Structures are given as C-alpha cells and as structure tokens.
Amino acid sequence: MIKILGFAGSLRRDSYNRALLRAAQKLAPADVEVEIFDIGSFPLFNEDMENPLPPVVAAFKEKIVQADAVLMVTPEYNYSISGVLKNAIDWASRPYGSNSFDGKAVAIMGASMGTIGTARAQYHLRQVCVFLNAHVLNKPEIMVSVAADKFRDGELVDEKTGHKVREQLVALVAWERQLRKS
Ligand SMILES: Cc1cc2nc3c(=O)[nH]c(=O)nc-3n(C[C@H](O)[C@H](O)[C@H](O)COP(=O)(O)O)c2cc1C
Questions:
Q1: Strand stretches in the chain, DSSP E
Q2: How sure is the predictor about 10, in pLDDT bands with cuts at 50, 70 and 90?
Q3: Which CATH number fits domain 2-181: 3.30.460.10, 2.40.50.140, 3.40.50.360, 3.90.180.10?
Q4: Separation of 55 CA from ligand 1 center, angstroms?
Q5: What residue ranges do the domains of the chain occupy?
C-alpha cells in the first residue's frame, strides 16, 4: 500500500480545494491510500513555539515522515498560495534541521473560480518546494478552472478532471518509486 498524505489550503466549508482533495481520496487506485490532514487548527507560526512543537504540528510532521508521498491542494489567493497553506508548510519545515518535506515526492493540484485554475499559486508553491528540497512531480498538472462548474454539493462531477486526478496519483506513485530507487 502506498501512503499519500494530503492537505488543502482552504478552511471554507464548501471549499472546492477540499472537495478536490476528497475526490483524490476516492479516485485513488486500489493500492494507494490518501489520508487527509486538516491543517485548520494550526496556530500561526511562531518560532518561540518550536520547542516543544504544538501537538497538532508534531502529529502533522510525523504523518508526513511516515507517508510515501505528499499531495498539496492549493487555492489561489492574490496570485499566490493561501496563508493557511503556507503556515502549515512553514511549521512542518521546522525546527531548523528537521524539515519533514526533505526528499519527499510531492504532487500539487488546485481549484479556483478563475480561468487559469491556480496556475500562479502552484508556481509559487513549486518555488517554496525548492527550499524544502521536496521533489515535485512535473506532470500532469491539475489546475481546475471555473470550479463552480465542476463541483456539485461538495463532489467533483467533472469526469475529465476526475481522470486527470487519478492520472496524477498514478504518476506520483511512479515518481516516488523512481526517487526511492535513485
Ligand atoms: C483572499 C482571496 C484572494 C483570492 N485571489 C484569487 C486569485 O488571485 N486568483 C483566483 O483565481 N482566484 C482568487 N480568489 C478566488 C478563489 O479562487 C475562490 O474563492 C476559490 O473558491 C477559493 O478556493 P476554495 O473554494 O477552496 O475556498 C481569491 C479568493 C480569496 C478569498
């Protein structure tokens, strides 16, 4: 069983990005388990709180370390990732020398109301992942545009997007295997 830890950078109850992450969980191939971690209760990052880490942060870091790969689902806020997502990533990258993303296989997807489906945010996130030394899967990219047309009642209903999501998970597993070998 391949374990993927997924988290989404929106706290909104009817969030398209949370719905996209749930879709990934459902659409995962039989040998892949996507566990969802809710990053909504993390305190705002404060270096003074690193020792000891808040329990929810310690649990998150442990889940990342135990997972074979990570799935980050990002909304686009003001042409970048949300503060909520960056806060969780910053926590998991700390304390210095204990970056939980180091060497991890990562996939990125996102959904927005606009027509370019979080492209700008995703490319910011890729930049963040350079410093994390996370190995981000290049393709397929999943940028869900005009999200209101693709979800209904919290469910992904767009078949084409569903196929892409599954394709990305398959590619992520292959990517993780390749990284493990090298
Ligand atoms: C603070 C804020 C900034 C936003 N900035 C952008 C943006 O730069 N580009 C974009 O396509 N959508 C932007 N949006 C719209 C979001 O794409 C839309 O609210 C989306 O539904 C958020 O994701 P969610 O459904 O997972 O909460 C912004 C929304 C908020 C609340």
A1: 2-8, 32-36, 69-73, 105-111, 135-136, 142-144, 151-152, 155-156
A2: very high
A3: 3.40.50.360
A4: 30
A5: 2-181
